[in-house]
What we know:
- This protein has five helices and no strands.
- The protein is mainly α and 118 residues long.
- The N and C termini lie close together (12 Å).
Amino acid sequence: MLFDAMPNSLIASSAIYFGLAYNLKRNKKDLGYYSQGLYYFLTFYYYLSLLFGLGVLIYYGKQFSWYLPFVLFIVSGIIGTVGFVFLEGTLGELKMSIIGIVGLPIASYYFITTMPVI
C-alpha cells in the first residue's frame, strides 16, 4: 500500500517543490534588503506556495491514508531542504530565488501530476 500510494516520482517532485519553497523562505529576509517590494513579493509568493502545498497534502491524505502526507512531507522535506541548501551554496541566494520564483509553478504542476490516482 505504501509504495503504491507513494511512488518515487511523487517523492522527487514534492522534494523539488518543498526545496524551492524552503529556499524562498530562507532568502526572503536576506533579499529584502535589496528592495522592500522584493521582500513583500517573496513573502506573498512563499505563503501562496505554502497554502498550495498544504492543500495538496490534505487532498493526498483524503485520497489514500491520513498518515501518508506526514511521511511524504518529512521524507521530501529532508531531501529537498538538504539538496537545495547545497545548491544555494553553489549558485548564491539571488540566483536560487529567481530559480524558485520560476521553478515553483513548474514544480507545482509535477507535484500534482505525479500523484497516484485511485
